[in-house]
Specification:
Maltoporin, Chain A
Length: 613
């Protein structure tokens, strides 16, 4: 018998050790951009948002972006095996395709599968991550039903600063990173490169489940990535810049009959050029053009290709008002797909107009936004968001919000040709969501806590419906409604050399047409991280616990609850050198996040970093 509420008892017991101590201040002046498209202090936010800076990324010791995200409140990770295998992110119980991924402001994802491209983005290229939970289509358009995750590539400042990291670990894992950054009053620059490879594990947890596709070998993965950023400031208030992130990877998997070495070559790229100009004391204009590419070419052993190219123009104007700030923006997005599948239509365009107004007055705070998207396939769609907060005193703030969001169907869902088992449906409508939430924030010197209750109702949910006999094939249709209610709690503590962060999530992600829980969604999750950094040492532990789930919409193929404990640490060998290590799955837990796919057992990774201050 499983005990889903033991995560509450365990977390509460550990946190009680820390809850009565010290009086150091927490940095509440950190700036977040994703939540409003404007730089705003995090303690003024009325949304459920998390910032992960570079120091936190390095201390966590994670290797991949999905791995790091899996330790954040409200986020659930599903992977088809070990390092580099296909990963899905569920925010607040919504679908994997209901999260929008941005890289320096550019959307990166597949318009054929309609999912973001998290898997191959190495943390070595990332300076900062912002997680916005809740609907955000009123700011970013399609896909942001569950939330937005934005990653920012590394920036340069100050004197020339080289960085090097080399590490190795279990399963033949090897990683090397190198970079250089710096800047002056006029120029700033950063250039980084990384290489990651692993022999991997046998991703099939049970030969019976894979049948004739089963191949009892390890499934290797390798990734080469580089990023760059260059900015020029010709005068005060004016900046021209370019950003670029590129990854190339090869992933092996079990997927052919009879068993052969199946693999895919994948490329993810996002680049942009921008001009940010302060045209008046109260008016800043930002013009940006960018392109992103998601390319996946598989050989199993036949060749298949699914590629998405996105081109986007954005012009945003931020205007300071006597009370608050106004944001007005327009976007033009063009999506093109290339595939060995013969889609009837291979491109679409979206023209958008966005307005936002954020402000504070005495104890009152507000954030409002509205967006209109003119999609060449579906016509016009208007979404909006309104949030209000009231500061009860210096420590407590109550907040409430209502927002709408939508997701356009993918090219696969719309235009897949008629085969013996699947056919597209060009008559599909976008999914549409209405989210209501209330919350309470508490910040007191060294401690911070929040509780959020949300009710997200999704209409026109797309599922693959089975044709009646004699066809017996799948066809996507707008037939379902989903309702996801939940409560999310988080707590953080900073006291001297100690730091603790914890999160608890209780959700009911229900398909209202059947009453079943949405597939792969847990009703309970718990996250806990504790670190201690005395002098040259940093020692930390993580606990990630996920409740039981079903792998299918019909509540078959059960997935058991699991708890995974990781340890990490570092030691400063000198002013510029440090030794870093990590033990994953300390207690050698056997578990699955996707039915039939194994997860790595206990493993170790150790590395050396050179980073002059």
């Amino acid at each position: 018998m499983h005990h889903p509420f033991r995560i509450t008892v365990l977390t509460a017991a550990i946190l009680s050790v820390f809850s009565v101590h010290a009086r150091e201040e927490t940095d509440l002046g950190a700036v977040v951009v994703t939540a409003t498209r404007q730089p705003t202090r995090i303690n003024e936010q009325l949304t459920d948002v998390t910032i992960i800076d570079r120091e936190a990324i390095e201390q966590a010791g994670a290797t991949t972006l999905p791995e790091l995200l899996s330790h954040q409140p409200g986020v659930q990770l599903v992977t088809n095996g070990g390092l580099g295998k296909e990963s899905s992110i569920f925010i607040r119980g919504t679908n994997a395709g209901h999260t929008l991924l941005l890289v320096d402001g550019m959307p990166l994802g597949s318009a054929t599968k309609a999912t973001p491209s998290f898997t191959n983005l190495p943390l070595s290229q990332i300076e900062r991550i912002e997680i916005l939970r809740g609907p955000a289509s009123s700011l970013y358009g399609s896909d942001a039903i569950g939330g937005v995750i934005q990653v920012f590539t590394k920036q340069g400042a100050g004197k020339l600063r080289p960085e090097i990291f080399v590490g190795a670990g279990s399963y033949g894992t090897f990683e090397a990173q190198a970079g250089v950054s710096g800047g002056t009053e006029q120029w700033s620059y950063s250039l980084r490169a990384s290489k990651l490879e692993t022999d991997g594990i046998n991703v099939a947890s049970d030969p019976v489940r894979f049948g004739s596709n089963y191949n009892p070998d390890s499934d290797p993965y390798q990734n080469t990535a580089w990023s760059g950023r260059l900015a020029f400031r010709p005068a005060a208030g004016h900046e021209l810049g370019v950003t670029l992130l590129n990854t190339d990877s090869t992933n092996h998997y079990d997927g052919a009959k009879p068993p052969v070495d199946s693999y895919s070559n994948d490329t993810n790229r996002a680049w942009a050029i921008y001009s940010r100009n302060q045209l008046a004391q109260i008016w800043t204009s930002t013009l940006r053009y960018g392109e992103s590419k998601d390319w996946s070419e598989s050989f199993a052993p036949g060749r298949s290709l699914f590629a998405t190219e996105q081109k986007q123009w954005t012009w945003q104007n931020d205007i300071k008002l006597p009370l608050g700030s106004l944001m007005l923006a327009t976007e033009h997005l063009r999506q093109n797909v290339e595939s060995t599948t013969n889609f009837k239509l291979k491109n679409r365009t979206v023209d958008s107009f966005i307005a936002g107004y954020n402000g504070n007055w005495e104890n009152h705070s507000w954030q409002a936004s509205q967006r209109y998207d003119d999609n060449s396939q579906f016509g016009g769609k208007t979404t909006g968001n309104l949030a209000y907060g009231y500061r009860l005193n210096t420590d407590w703030q109550a907040r409430a919000a209502y927002g709408t969001a939508f997701k356009a169907p993918s090219f696969n869902q719309l235009y897949s040709p008629n085969t013996s088992f699947y056919t597209g449906n060009p008559d599909l409508n976008p999914e549409f969501a209405k989210n209501r939430e209330v919350g309470l924030n508490w910040n007191h010197e060294h401690q911070r806590a929040s509780i959020t209750y949300f009710d997200n109702r999704i209409e026109n949910l797309i599922i693959n419906a089975v044709f009646p006999p004699p066809a017996n094939k799948l066809k996507p249709q707008n037939v379902n409604r989903a309702r996801i209610t939940g409560t999310s709690l988080s707590y953080g503590l900073t006291y001297g050399a100690w730091n603790a962060d914890a999160g608890l999530d209780f959700m009911k992600p229900i398909d209202q047409s059947t009453g079943n829980r949405l597939p792969r969604r847990a009703a309970q999750m718990g996250k806990l991280s504790i670190s201690y950094a005395p002098g040259p040492w940093t020692l930390g532990a993580e606990l990630n616990t996920v409740g039981d789930r079903f792998d299918t919409a019909t509540q078959t193929k059960p997935l058991s609850q699991f708890e995974v404990v990781n340890l990490y640490g570092s030691y400063k060998l000198g002013q510029d050198w440090s030794l870093e290590g990590r033990v994953n799955n300390l207690f050698d837990k056997v578990y699955e996040t996707a039915w039939g796919y194994a997860q790595p057992r206990a493993n170790v990774f150790i590395g050396v970093r050179y980073a002059p201050k």
